Amino acid sequence: MNTKVYDMKWKESGTATLNKDVFGVEVNEDLIHRALVLQLANARVAIAHTKTRGERRGSTRKIYRQKGTGRARMGSNRSPIRKKGWVAFGPRNDRNFTLTMNRKERQKALFCVLSAKVTAKSLVVVKKLEMKEAKTKTMNTIMTALPLGKTTLIALAEKNENVERSISNLKTVKYVQSAYLNMADLLKYETLVLTEDSLNQLNALSA
């Protein structure tokens, strides 16, 4: 599999090879969904917290006798139906949302999304993406010249501070290193931009 390579002015500068084991696999939507749920669940931080019956302060004395008052039966002041009582079935910050998934399954899900990008013609390969200084205006000019969708994810092989700072003020563009490509970003952003170096890194994943 081959794809065109462009320079930063949207001119063809050659072709690059796409590993069919990475960019040409059959798309498995169920696997992609599982990998996305895994990522979102493992990133979840439980903050909301309510007290149980044992944690709520107060006497355990029965408020009034069981019969003869004409009122409903009532236990202690810590009952969940009374003001300042404990919360029944409330959220707890010690809840574990962690999920697990085999490494090969996670990798296969990544390959499925990359293959879907190729099929949808949403993958753009550029020879390199370098900037002498961090300027949002210059980066916006480059993004306008390339055949991109409404939202763009740029994956570089190595950290590039000038590119990262230039992109930070563009609402529809995000920068990430190719080693940290993830399901949430790939599914959220319409177009994926790779450099030749980052493409080589991805091609080597199936080795």
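(ticket continues) Second input and output from the same batch:
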Amino acid sequence: MGNLLLVPSRSDKVKAWFVHLFTASGVIWALLGMIAVMNGEWQTAFFWMIIATVVDGVDGTLARIARVKGVLPEFDGAMLDNILDYLTYVILPALFFYNHPALLPAGWQLFGAVLISLASAYQFCQADAKTDDHTFKGFPSYWNIVVLYLFVLNLSPWFNLGMLVFLGIMVFVPIKYAYPSRMTKWKTTTLILSTIWSIEMLLVVFQLPNPNRVIVYSSMIFVIYYVAISLAITFGKADVKAVF
């Protein structure tokens, strides 16, 4: 009788499939973003990147609420999530770097796109890319954020290329990067700063091609905070078990 109580109901399965469908919608936003990039519609491409990021940021919570692993054990939601993450966080930004005429030095666009694609392929396929203590090992392929900042800051193409090379190397350096949505320590601070940062990024995209520089630079407060807590976790200034 106890086992019967564990059998998921039809309603449970419908909810779980809805969550998987919500996650799978990421492929739509990735595809629309790629089409926008190929048409040179940079602002539109960033808009679809944001939609895809929102989906990725919400679907994990929905999956835990709907208990998708227990309700639909035959469907690998983690595999689906990784496929979509690779499309939206890696391939779409790589295509952006390849197609944009001024982000990278002339003749280096393919190199930049291949660099982040190969480095991220390695990062995604590590068994402990997402560690047991809820961190990411190595730079977690936030190329969508990188391309947005490099686009709005309008820096030297050679600097941009150097940044891609540096971050590509950081994929292989075993620094533990924080998983903001799974934090318990500093949770309130992280939530406030990440929310402000998200609003600032939306404003920046809506203001393209000439975003308010104050908003752009103030948004980096969260980036600095994120790097700082990741280094603290990695080098023992913070107890990982107390953070997550």
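Agent notes: Confidence is low (pLDDT under 50) at residues 1-5. The chain has twelve helices and two strands. Closing as not reproducible unless the customer responds.
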